[in-house]
Write a structure and sequence with these properties.
Number of helices: 11
Radius of gyration: 21 Å
Mean pLDDT: 89
Low-confidence stretches: 270-275, 326-332
Order of helices and strands: EEEHEEHEHHHHEHEHEEHHHEE
Number of strands: 12
Distance between the termini: 25 Å
Strand content: 15-25%
């Protein structure tokens, strides 16, 4: 599956959290956030990861950056195993891998001036000192469309869109090759979303950046990304080029996601909603294909056999028993 120009290679990534739930006597339960997730990201490419809230999209990003330690699998960045890297090696790798968080207000220290928020990583990594740091901050602010005077102000003095521009500038400070964008526009007004997306697109072209763009908004992914991976309850269920996924989705869940997008036909929208059902809990996911309780095409073995994610056409992968290439291989 690995492409010759792959910058990021993720194989069999898994993460389970232990949580205390219940009342009045809480119990420790295992929450499988991600389960055997594999994908590649090429240099300069934008891969979108989409799915419902709680499906594990953000955990994938954090596990790739080792902000949370994965339980299984490997992450290779430009040939280096991130999951096995030492602290010093990881420090070097993180200069080339950065993240833009969903909520720009909570991502910035309210007691820190913007000059320090953007300049700190430059100083910590020894890229510049003294007045050179200040000059670098001004250049970064200009690159994201903010005036030099913004460096002297605090986060609360900016709008949500401006704070996200600051977060983007901070992510660019070390000159990364790959940026994880974790729902970067979901907390913003629609008009501001468009401005941030245009900015990210310009930065990608100018700096030849690769992106892993996490979102639940299919329209945003369709605009920004070249490829898309669809997640459901911790697993990838479909992956392929954006035009093919949106024009001819193969997996029933991908079809449901597309049908759930806003359409100018209220009657059809209600009909689709009645078929959706409720997503199961990651604490006790269904056996076999996780989607089978909600799937209108479910077969007998869907409840007991996990469909592998296989290539069914050049550049197209799907995990579904509806396709011959994804025939039953094992019972769980």
């Amino acid at each position: 599956m690995s492409a010759p120009d792959a910058l990021l290679e993720v194989r069999g990534l898994g993460k389970t959290f232990q949580e205390r739930r219940g009342w009045p006597v809480p119990k420790t339960v295992a929450v499988r956030a991600i389960d055997s997730v594999s994908f590649d990201v090429a240099r300069g490419e934008a891969l979108g990861i989409v799915g419902e809230s709680g499906c594990g999209k953000s955990t994938v990003a954090r596990a790739c950056l080792r902000l949370v330690a994965p339980d299984a699998g490997s992450v290779r960045f430009d040939g280096v195993d991130v999951t096995a890297a030492s602290s010093s090696a990881l420090r070097v790798l993180r200069r080339r891998m950065q993240i833009v968080f969903q909520d720009p207000a909570s991502a910035l220290d309210p007691r820190q001036r913007i000059a320090d928020a953007i300049g700190e990583p430059i100083r910590v990594h020894g890229i510049a000192r003294g007045s050179a740091v200040e000059a670098a901050v001004v250049r970064l602010l200009d690159e994201v469309g903010l005036p030099a005077a913004a460096a002297r102000r605090y986060p609360h003095e900016f709008s949500g869109g401006q704070r996200q521009r600051i977060g983007i500038a901070r992510a660019l400070a070390l000159g990364p090759d790959l940026v994880f964008a974790d729902e970067p526009v979901s907390a913003l007004d629609v008009s501001v979303q468009a401005q941030i997306l245009v900015l990210l697109d310009q930065l990608r072209a100018r700096r030849h950046l690769a992106f892993v763009f996490i979102s639940h908004d299919l329209g945003v992914v369709r605009h920004f990304c070249q490829r898309v991976a669809v997640m459901y309850l911790g697993r990838l269920v479909e992956e392929g080029p954006v035009p093919q996924i949106f024009e001819e989705p193969l997996h029933p869940y991908t079809r449901l996601l597309k049908a759930s997008s806003p359409i100018p036909d209220p009657e059809r929208a209600v009909a689709q909603q009645l078929q959706e059902g409720e997503p199961p809990s990651p604490v006790n996911p269904p056996s076999g294909c996780h989607f089978h309780p909600r799937c209108p095409h479910a077969m007998a073995h869907c409840s007991s056999v996990v469909p592998p994610l296989v290539e069914v056409a050049p550049g197209r992968r799907v995990a579904c028993h509806l396709y011959p290439a994804a025939a039953p291989t094992g019972v769980v």
